[in-house]
Design goal:
Elements lengths: L12 H4 L18 H5 L6 H7 L13 H9 L7 H11 L4 E4 L6 H15 L5 E4 L3 H14 L7 E4 L5 H9 L4 E4 L1 H9 L10 E4 L2 H6 L3 H9 L6 E6 L4 H10 L4 E4 L9 E7 L5 H9 L7 E4 L3 H13 L4 E4 L5 H12 L5 E4 L14 E4 L6 H8 L9 E7 L1
Parallel strand pairs: 1-6, 1-7, 2-4, 2-5, 3-4, 5-6, 8-13, 9-11, 9-12, 10-11, 12-13
Length: 398
Amino acid sequence: MYRKFGQRSQGRQNFNRFNGNQNRGARPVKAFNPIEFINNIPEVKKEEKEQENIITHSFSDFQIAPELKRNILEKGYTKPTPIQDRAIEPILEGKDLVGIANTGTGKTAAFLIPLINKVLKDRRQKVLILTPTRELATQIKSEFLDFSRFLNIFACLCIGGEDIRRQIRDLSRNPNFIVATPGRVQDLIGSRAINLSSFSSVVLDEADRMVDIGFIKDIKYIVSLLPKTRQSLFFSATIDNEVQQILQSFVQDPVTVSVKTRDTSQNITQKVILVEKTKKVEVLHDLLIKEDFVKVLVFGRTKHGVQRLSDELAARGFKAGAIHGDKRQSQRNRTLELFKKDEINILIATDVASRGLDIPNVSHVINFDLPESRDAYIHRIGRTGRADKKGIALTFVN
């Protein structure tokens, strides 16, 4: 028997799994409390905002192949973003680069465009792009396909959760680009399917996130196998001590491009909702039935908690789906596509969705569970308020 849309489940037993007892015996996790952060967001003066948005190039100014310029135009790109404006030229010149920018600033095109041009000039060139998550790697591959249309340049996607035998077959065709996650690169090294000494260009994207989720040893090992003479591009939203360790061994005499002028977009309205643990689902329910909650991304802390919340919302009649580490990659990809195409309008996720994913028109981000750090909070709420659109970020605090 199906529930009517928005109808609450009967019985308190359904709510107990969302209260403070759900993680009994689990290791306590320190969480970031956003109240003080939100209360101290500085106002940005008009002249500062105008200075930040000064663009000195158009795509036609860059010394890149006409065919590549055509693909850029057909993708709908007319004016570079700040990171693209300042990074493309030094990358075209063959320089190492450190790009410091928040998520959603157009970093992917900033390195793909000049690297595709590099391969067009010399088909022997090989490029390795490392990302922290499968979803971000998949998205980079998708953007690559747009920029490389009809250019006879190929890329191989090497990520966990997919058939490694097929990836080994794809690698045997000697693609110019490999887009990969560190764990799968380790697997491919172990099976001797990939030789890192042949890569003349390497990109570490979202380096701080790779450190956050425990890839620092993998990254150091992978970097140690790369040729000493190479072009190295390093992108990160923040650079702390651990990220600095990777940076020092990775780039040589780099150009540093920073477009990180503030932590959060001025287009995002941030609010805190005080709520009792046992009433969190009820409060979420009452928010989601409001008309203006058109496309909502809800963040939880654990894989099991995210799945339980998704199941509960679906049982109440909401069009909801979940992505987390226990899902097969094909399931994660399908759920993301359903969300992007508005076939579901609520996506519940762990922090796997907080970085790099280009999900258009997210009206609201809701932190159902508090993030573990200030940076995690910033990246979560950065999923809304993109491309000059307005967004709202709500955080549940006990």
